[in-house]
Design brief:
It is a single chain. The chain is mainly α and 367 residues long. The chain has a domain at 36-218 and 246-292: Cytochrome Bc1 Complex, Chain C (Up-down Bundle). The protein has 14 helices and 2 strands, in the order H-H-E-H-H-H-H-H-H-H-E-H-H-H-H-H. It has helices at residues 3-15, 17-26, 40-61, 69-78, 83-110, 119-141, 146-158, 166-174, 181-213, 245-270, 300-308, 312-327, 329-332, 344-366; strands at 29-30, 243-244. Helix 4 (69-78) crosses helix 5 (83-110). It is globular.
Length: 367
Amino acid sequence: MSLPDKLREWFEVRLGIAELVEKRLTGYLLPRNINAWYSLGSVLLVIFGIQVVTGILLLIYYVPDADKAFRSVTAIMNDVPFGWLIRMCHAVGSNMMVAVLLLHMLSVLFMGSYKRPRELNWLTGFILFNLVLGISLTGYLLPWSQLSFWATTVATNSAGAIPVIGGYLVEFLRGGKLVGPPTLGRFFAVHVALLPLLIAALIGAHLFLLERIGVSAPPFGLANTRTRWAGDRFRHESHPDGIPFYPTYLLQDATSIFIYLALFFGVVFFNPYLFFPPTAFIPADPFKTPPHIKPEWYFLANYQTLKVFPNELLGLMVQGAVMSLLALLPFIDRGAERHPLKRPLFLACFIGGICVYLAMTIWGHYS
């Protein structure tokens, strides 16, 4: 027996690798009508990995001090070998992570994959989405530019509209009355330690639920598009006539990942400042408010909603009601039907909600 064969045998008798491959790859069957939208979860795992690696590399040179933060980011861009590439990958990746996560959640909504028994899958995904928004918001302040300073001032001001606790909440977020060095310290700690750990834990929980309950079949091309789970006992949804994860669907995963990487590096190399307005390149000045300060694109709808209503409290209440409705949707929509064309009320709300979100985002951009 050759040395490689001996090594393989050594690991095989201790770990049962062949059984593991059979159970998790070649023998793991997915619905025969599974589509490309299901691969967005794998794309998100790749994005999260890129964000972690580039974030660790940025930590080597970034200085979380209000007097040095902007200069350290400038040095990363101009002096550190490939520093500009690492920072651009991290900044562009944070925006694209929100976009891909939005698409993933919309596909889950459209195909009714949030319905019972997958309420916990939806809830963990919804919390993950909010944590990603949180890590993007906290990372926004770290360059300590005019944009990041005043966008954070506007964002934290909104919490002050909450009755009774609003003032305390603003002071807690900022570490003082105004955005300043304590705010940078808090946001830095939350951005590099707390939120990545929470996101990693939620991803683990989400994958555990996916493995435990099984992959839902898309409601397209099937005679019966209703949820078959009766709710009387646990049942893993298996697909004995399905396709193997390896190699069949792994090729689809790889295709989606490479398409994403092509778009991602296309932005990084050919339009790297797509998400950077001019105020992102000016150091923070607490005594000079720039005109027309705007949040990132994924907060523009929230920003415009606060402007539409006569007071911020009403705007926050409306947004809170919408987010609560989305979080609790699997517990509200208890119908067994999953095909969107057989649910006209859902389809109208789905299309209407997307139109309103896009309209508020565009309005917020040009207002």
